């Protein structure tokens, strides 16, 4: 590694830069059919992107050739979400060409950073689950593992968030493909038919086969997105499916004079991949969502099967060459779909087919929240996918027989474990189907994996034994989340460690070498200067995009994530109000002794999530009052930054002094932004939940700020709220005081917020009344700690130093070794 890096420095830099400028100019004149002398930044960005794309395609081709020749076992990552963000900066960094492109672009009279800013985010995901998929792909290429992603090519990604003057969230569409997308390669020849509805007739020959016919047929067409690894030729593939009508449109209707009907059926085909569902951690039974799930799993499995068959191996060898990872339960229909293919099309017996299936699939669970567990009504499944419903009933029949054999007469256990939840209508429990149809099951952080085993899948642990259940703690790619978003810190780390970044970015535990320099005053000084510069970069962004002026000489306190009751943004805003009321009560002299800070929020609420939207409204209106209050605004300011995205996160995260990850204990499966902040030297304020726990284990409890009740307390506390409720004035006077300020209209019409405040006054499912006092105490500890800047910087350096575990390079290797049994296949 290190030697290769030094050798790379000896290349003929000027010649390479010349090649790059030639390629850019060539794309301006040919691909874009424009003149180089009156080109705007958007045109220049497109030409640069096309030039980079040429390099990616060459590497992509060599990678696919290598994988075909070596024919290693491959893994496929099925995810309905890939939250990729921008690609240009990431691509030139991974290719090791950033300096050359910067130089080449400069010679052409442009500024590279301005061009990077022209790119739209590919926002084909909601939050953590989709961004995890993107980080894992980056690491799969970097680790030279033969992994492909499969997803949907939504025409509209996650909605654009607007905030009205009253503080209401408004949603606008995200037509991200309007400026053509240079990062995808349409594959007009990679197409499959996918059927919906119709009839399934079981054959009478006793073979167990069935014939599924009629209904609607839709075409799936592939688009390939190259995924470059970091300083390797390996460039994996993300294959996204687009739905199209089967033959332009329905010619029969057309000829019969039913023009509108013909267009409508062609619209209904295109509708399948038109929009990403904007729900995160909630499930609901919409037919179009079910069609998305089947369309995508059917096309992906057909593609996987075609590639496998090209190898002329017996079908029984399928699991020796293929592993399929299910990203949550969204692709669970792949299980009955592979059964259908094997039985109805490949002539396999039920037992052989089930053996293949259960050695092929792996299931990752991302939540234990009951409202997020997917269930599909039996009548809906029967209507849309009649053959799959038959297969699911058959799987259940066999499974129930096995359970009955192991636990004779335990009818309650049978009811709990059944794939079918009784009720009207009956519902299919997708997590149960994913569990019994997979080789192994994992959660995404230690605590979460334990909760999976002791709560939602407890009976399945008793049935199968513990070895089927594991943990793969999430990670993040340090290329995007340190080198790309915080290049000055990355450079400081390299010079401090005396290790080139090309080495430690692929071997993140090397960061631990920073510990030897924690007491170096020179390092501390530069470390602090970089944090300061990153605050100024954020302030500049806010000035340009929102027209607000932000003080950069204060502590930056950030909470950015999807709005959700369990994530408790409400706790944070009520804490801000508490601080404001306290500041107001101080004399000007006393105020001057307090810690000054700016609090930032960003995040989207699902469009139908009323309480989450009300929380945004409260934040915006509190900000309006606090920021205008001349008594206090020097000491406390508050910002809600609209339209949170991957590229906004890249500006926010490097600027934080402290970030908040304050979910009710036991509710946040992992969290991944906690890792991003800490990697960038931001300290963590959080509950004992998800990956916060493992972060604290690594950096040491003295370097994090923990508060709140623990997971084992939660059940009892909820019970107390139900049956022994204590009036809030008695239980938590500080919180009662804050709620009264809101109700009383301090931030505009108090009545508006009653439904939000009532979730706390009545039931308080997320335990704000239990955790508020300890939260306020923790915030006070943060203030005290921050006043000692010298010690704070040391904590910051120690935090970065101990983040080695949280690279997706480690996570993808865990999957490769403990789950998929695949090995790397380097492209020479
Ligand atoms: C399901 C059915 C119908 C419509 C939508 C959905 C749906 C969509 C998205 C359900 C859940 C999601 C997203 C879940 C998610 O992002 N979970 C997060 O996953 C991260 C990666 O593992 C964890 O770090 C977070 O803790 C977890 O909340």
From TrEMBL:
GO terms for cellular component: cytoplasm. The keyword Transit peptide does not apply. GO terms for molecular function: glycogen phosphorylase activity; pyridoxal phosphate binding. Its EC number is 2.4.1.1. The keyword Flavoprotein does not apply. Its cofactor is pyridoxal 5'-phosphate. Keywords: Allosteric enzyme, Carbohydrate metabolism, Glycosyltransferase, Pyridoxal phosphate, Transferase. It holds the Pfam family Phosphorylase. GO terms for biological process: glycogen catabolic process. Allosteric enzyme that catalyzes the rate-limiting step in glycogen catabolism, the phosphorolytic cleavage of glycogen to produce glucose-1-phosphate, and plays a central role in maintaining cellular and organismal glucose homeostasis. NCBIfam families: P_ylase (TIGR02093). This is Alpha-1,4 glucan phosphorylase.
């Amino acid at each position: 590694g290190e030697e290769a890096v030094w050798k790379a420095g000896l290349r003929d830099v000027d010649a390479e830069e010349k090649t790059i400028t030639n390629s850019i100019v060539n794309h301006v004149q040919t691909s874009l059919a424009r003149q180089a002398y009156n080109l705007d930044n958007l045109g220049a960005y497109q030409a640069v992107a096309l030039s980079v794309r040429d390099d990616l395609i060459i590497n992509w081709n060599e990678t696919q050739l290598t994988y075909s020749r070596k024919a290693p076992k491959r893994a496929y990552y099925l995810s309905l979400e890939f939250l990729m963000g921008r690609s240009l900066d990431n691509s030139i960094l991974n290719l090791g060409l950033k300096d050359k492109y910067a130089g080449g672009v400069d010679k052409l009279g442009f500024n590279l950073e301005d061009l990077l800013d022209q790119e739209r985010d590919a926002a084909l995901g909601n939050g953590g689950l989709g961004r995890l998929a993107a980080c894992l792909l980056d690491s799969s290429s970097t680790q030279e593992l033969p992994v492909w992603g499969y997803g949907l090519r939504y025409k509209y990604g996650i909605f654009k968030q607007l905030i009205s003057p009253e503080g209401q969230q408004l949603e606008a569409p995200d037509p991200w493909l309007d400026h053509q997308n240079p990062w995808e390669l349409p594959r007009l020849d990679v197409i499959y038919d996918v059927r919906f509805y119709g009839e399934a007739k079981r054959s009478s020959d006793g073979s167990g086969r069935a014939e599924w016919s009629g209904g609607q047929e839709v075409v799936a067409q592939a688009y390939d997105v190259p995924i470059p690894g970091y300083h390797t030729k390996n460039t994996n593939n993300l294959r996204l499916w687009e739905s199209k009508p089967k033959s332009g449109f329905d010619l029969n209707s057309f000829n019969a004079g039913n023009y509108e009907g013909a267009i409508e059926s062609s619209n209904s085909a295109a509708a399948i991949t038109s929009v990403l569902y904007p729900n995160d951690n909630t499930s609901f039974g919409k037919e179009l969502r079910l069609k998305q799930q089947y369309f995508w799993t059917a096309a992906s499995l057909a593609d996987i099967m075609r590639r496998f068959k090209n190898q002329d191996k017996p079908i029984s060898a399928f699991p020796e060459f293929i592993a399929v990872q299910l990203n949550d339960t969204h692709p669970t229909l792949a299980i009955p779909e592979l059964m259908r293919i094997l039985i109805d099309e490949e002539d396999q017996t039920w037992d052989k087919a089930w053996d293949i299936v259960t050695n092929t699939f792996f299931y990752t669970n991302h939540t234990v929240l009951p409202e997020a567990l997917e269930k599909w009504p039996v009548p809906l499944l029967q209507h849309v996918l009649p053959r799959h419903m038959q297969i699911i009933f058959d799987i259940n029949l066999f499974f129930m027989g096995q359970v009955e054999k192991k636990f004779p007469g335990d009818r309650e256990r049978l009811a709990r474990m059944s794939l079918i939840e009784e009720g009207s209508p009956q519902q299919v429990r997708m997590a149960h189907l994913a569990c019994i149809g997979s080789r192994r099951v994992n959660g995404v952080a230690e605590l979460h994996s334990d909760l999976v085993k002791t709560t939602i899948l407890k009976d399945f642990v008793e049935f199968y034994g513990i070895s089927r259940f594991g943990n793969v703690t999430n990670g993040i790619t340090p290329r995007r989340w340190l080198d790309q978003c915080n290049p000055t810190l990355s450079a400081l780390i390299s010079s401090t460690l005396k290790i080139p970044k090309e080495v430690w970015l692929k071997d993140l535990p090397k960061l631990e070498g920073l510990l030897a320099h924690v007491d170096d005053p020179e390092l501390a000084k530069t470390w602090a200067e970089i944090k300061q510069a990153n605050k100024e970069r954020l302030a500049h962004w806010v000035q340009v995009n929102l027209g607000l002026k932000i003080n950069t000489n204060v502590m930056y306190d950030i909470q950015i994530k999807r709005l959700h009751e369990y994530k408790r943004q409400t706790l944070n805003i009520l804490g801000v109000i508490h601080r404001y009321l306290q500041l107001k009560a101080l004399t000007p002299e006393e105020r001057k002794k307090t810690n000054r800070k700016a609090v930032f929020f960003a995040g989207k609420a699902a469009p139908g999530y009323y309480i989450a939207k009300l929380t945004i409204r409260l934040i915006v209106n509190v900000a309006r009052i606090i920021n205008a209050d001349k008594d206090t605004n020097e000491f406390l300011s508050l910002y809600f930054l609209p339209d949170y995205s991957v590229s906004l996160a890249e500006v926010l995260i490097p600027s934080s002094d402290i970030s908040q990850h304050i979910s009710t204990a036991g509710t946040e499966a992992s969290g991944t932004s906690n890792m991003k902040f800490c990697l960038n030297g931001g300290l963590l304020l959080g509950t004992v939940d998800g990956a916060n726990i493992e972060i604290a284990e690594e950096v040491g409890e003295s370097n994090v700020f923990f508060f709140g009740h623990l997971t084992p307390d939660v059940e009892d506390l909820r019970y107390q709220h139900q049956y022994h409720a204590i009036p809030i004035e008695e239980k938590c006077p500080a919180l009662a005081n804050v709620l009264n300020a809101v109700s009383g209209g301090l931030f505009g019409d108090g009545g508006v917020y009653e439904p939000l405040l009532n979730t706390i006054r009545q039931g308080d499912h997320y335990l704000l009344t239990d955790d508020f006092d300890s939260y306020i105490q923790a915030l006070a500890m943060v203030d005290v700690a921050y006043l000692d800047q010298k010690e704070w910087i040391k904590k910051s350096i120690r935090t970065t130093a101990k983040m080695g575990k949280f690279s997706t390079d480690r996570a993808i290797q865990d999957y490769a070794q403990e789950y998929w049994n695949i090995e790397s296949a380097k492209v020479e």
